Predict the structure of DNA-3-methyladenine glycosylase I.
Amino acid sequence: MQVQRKMRIAHYGRTKSAKYEGKVIPLDHSSPTTTTIVVKEEKRCNFITSNSDPTYIAYHDEEWGVPVHDDKLLFELLVLTGAQVGSDWTSVLKKRQDFRDVFSGFDPEIVAKFNEKKMTSICTDYGIELSQVRGAVDNANRILEIKKEFGSFDKYLWSFVNNKPIATQYKSCLKMPVKTSKSESISKAMVRRGFRYVGPTVMHSFMQAAGLTNDHLITCPRHLQCLALASQSPSVPPAL
């Protein structure tokens, strides 16, 4: 039991691997009759499979469900979740650096000043739909308005969940909804303010990405790890 406990503690927090390999561990090599235990396998959320792209796996292991309080990163995740419509997370994540380059590190002060020529150039050079580019520019302006009213985009968004992530208890991804009453209420509030690409489904995906909700399955090691991160004081994360 002590060996098993040490292995669990040693494994906890490692983001490059999210499961034990089910190895048989001898308790005492010197004993003539070796007693063995089988380490229980810990599995990632079951939407991660052996065929999942490494970029997507790394995103699940290191970012998904982690509470975000940096305005630029929140803006980035809002744009990425909107871009996911009609696509998939893996494709969007692989273009993530292009999005960062295009939108000046997601600085709303800069993006809000993009003119039509700049937006058209982005569409031509990077293959991003013009409507998405215009949506990001509009949203940058809405974020600036919110910062004047609330002090930060962070304060505005987290007020919807009383500054504490929603911790769900899903055992299977099949039970996970594509939208919730909370994502619907956030969507309605943001639409009233003029935000674009913020439908209930998009906002639910955004909440998962930004850690407003911890939707890791309870069997996934990241569920408890994200709970631990949520209990810490909000701080601005390092640049990615």
Notes: The longest strand covers residues 24-26. Confidence is low (pLDDT under 50) at residues 3-40, 235-240. The longest helix spans residues 130-150.
